[in-house]
Specification:
It is built from twelve helices and no strands. By secondary structure, it is mostly helical. Helix 3 packs across helix 5 and helix 5 packs antiparallel against helix 7. The protein is globular, with a radius of gyration of 23 Å. Bound molecules: zinc ion (ZN) (2 copies). One zinc ion binds next to helix 4 and helix 8.
Amino acid sequence: MKEKLYTIELHDALLSGDECPFCYLERDLEQKAIAFVLGSSYMESDTRDQTDRQGFCRAHTKMMYDYGNSLGNAWILKTRMKHMREGLKKEMASFKAEPAQSSVFGLLKKKEASEQSGTSVGSWIRREESHCYVCGRIEETYQRVIDTFLHQVRNEKDFMELVKQSKGFCIHHFADLVDACGKGLDRKEQEKVFPVLFEQMNRELDRIQEDIDWLIEKYDYLNKDKDWKNSRDAVQRTMQKLVGGHPADPVFKNQK
Ligand SMILES: [Zn+2]
Ligand SMILES: [Zn+2]
């Protein structure tokens, strides 16, 4: 079966006026995943089996709390707790104490070793923390969106024109895009794409810098009657450009 392409979604995201089309799509995927897991799906055994095993990262746990649905959350938590209690009990039961290292050299060595592997109990917990059901759902589609970008570079004549007209990308997602283009496009395609992407990144970062600089200037009483230009929301847009996401978004809540 041919994998689904997200052509329409990618086009909409590029035309949305967002500081990053991937942030724009990621927000949509994230909200859909939260609404899905706290919809009726938590009563389905295969979904619950996955949420029991994968759990949720701290950011998505917070989102689930904010979304609402106490009963849904309680069901998910009840059986995730069971999974964690069983695993942790087993790990603690088989834990073997190691002799303490008293010298400074010994301590350093021990620190090094624990940074690599840690105690068996600590490592088990960290492994459990390394996956999240919601992150996993987002990641799957996000990879397909990146693949779609590459596909459009190859197959849509004016695609790079569309990219040029957008506001570019946040630095966080830019890493994924550059890596994917470097890996997935041939040399000729790369020579066409990278100059456009790099020039755009420089231009858009200049623009954001101007906005955040002007916001600070506006606080000078000499400038109090001057125009805000594009600086009113420069804090959240600069945050997004640097690390991704939409820091000014309202809390995502269940509307039902
Ligand atoms: Zn982004
Ligand atoms: Zn997560």
